[in-house]
Each structure stands twice: as C-alpha cells, then as structure tokens.
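A favour, since you know our structure tokens better than I do. Just paste the record in under my message, thanks.
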Amino acid sequence: MSASPPARGARPTRPVGTVTRGTTNTNRLRRMDRWIAHTLGRTLRAADRPPVAVDLGYGAAPWTAVELSARLRAVRPDARVVGIEIEPDRVAAALPYAAPPLLSFRRGGFEVPLDGGSAQLIRAANVLRQYEEREVAVVWERLCGRLAPDGLLVEGTCDEIGRRHVWVALGPEGPRTVTFAARLAGLERPSDLAERLPKALIHHNVPGRPVHRFLADFDRAWAAAAPYGAFGARQRWIAACGSLAGSWPLVDARGRWRQGEATVEWAALAP
C-alpha cells in the first residue's frame, strides 16, 4: 500500500502504510526516549491538558509503547501514550498490556487515528527504513500534519538492542535536527553509526555529500581526542564533540554529550 496522501478532503478508509517486519526488543529505544524526555519535557509539563504521545509502528510486541509510557509519566504523570500498528494481530496481542487512559492500543498507520485530536509526540522508530527514500518526504508531511503546534515527530533507526541510533526530529514545519547516539563502550569510531542513518540520509552517505563530510570530520575529531580515552570513552566523546562544534552547528552541549549523543542542525546534513 502506498504512503501517498489521499485527495484533499478525503478520509482514508483503511490504515495508510504497509506492514513492516515488526522486530522489537525491550529497552531498544531507551536512548531515543531519554532524549525525548529531555527535549520535550518542558512542553509536556506546560501542557494544559494530558499530552498525547504516539508510538507508531511499535511492532510484533508492545514493549516500546509500554516503556515510552513509563518514561513520559516520569516527566508528566498524566501523559497518554497510544500505540498504533497497522497489523490487527499485533494490536490484539498488545491489548492485555493496555492501561487506559494512560496507555492504549489501536489499529492505524500514517493517518495517525486519534479521534480528531493531535499529538504532542509521534515516535516512529525503525519504520521508514523499510520504505523507499522517495516516500519519506510524503510520510513526514503527513505525520507533521498530525502534530500539535508545539509537537515533535521523532523518526529514526537503531540496531536490534539499541546500542546505536540515529534519528531526525521534526516540528510541524518540518525537519529540525539529527541526533547520533551510541553506547560508547565498544564504539570504534563515530562513523560506525552510518549504518543506522534514517532512510532520508542513508543513501547520501557518499563522498561529497554533507552527511559523509560530517561523519568524516567526526572521525577525525574522535581520532584527535584519543588521549582522552585514558579517562574513558565518555570523555573522549565529549572532547570530540567539543572539537566538532567548532565547524558544525551542534545544538546540544556537554550535558547531552555525556549521554553519548551529538545533535546537529538538519540543514547542515540535508541532502
């Protein structure tokens, strides 16, 4: 099924999208969730009604939605998470874990069915990686249209156990930033994260393209920071990010670098 939008004024009669592999694991999205709680925390706390977050395409088991609910409730106790899946059997399997109104599950796709409401957060992890690159912009536009005015779409890819993760953050107006996050122990070089680039970027990691230059510069900064490795991989990463910030628009600072993250403006990496 295509991800293309329906005609203006038309309402989709069936979920928009295609069934993905559904691979999932507990704690797989912890790095993304940690970043979301930090980045969106003030907005969630300031909302005048219980904020709604969507775990879009949670997969064959509901673990990521259950974990997102717990992590957001630590920031805003009445936050509501809706797990949305296009495959009916996956929705049925998740229902025993529901705890309405704080956690619910329903069938749907990129139309994000919320009974006329909008979402403060839509998280779509390891979903678009299974689509064609030409479909990404259409899906982004559709999902951004389901956000509240101060909402956030987070779309990206990670490995099977969440050690390496790259995601794009988008507001209603479109893409804002790209975040690279890793378990630093065992990371040989920052460009190891290239295999987890989101669909919008992964085919552009070739010489002459911005994302390739960024990762090459990150590798050079990592190599130059090797002496800091005597104090641990975290200190080496912090030093590399500090050096990289001199030539690339990193939007975070030492506090986030300590978490094994580096966030750069989308415009600097855009194809």
Observations:
- The first strand starts at residue 52 and ends at 56.
- The chain has a mean pLDDT of 93.
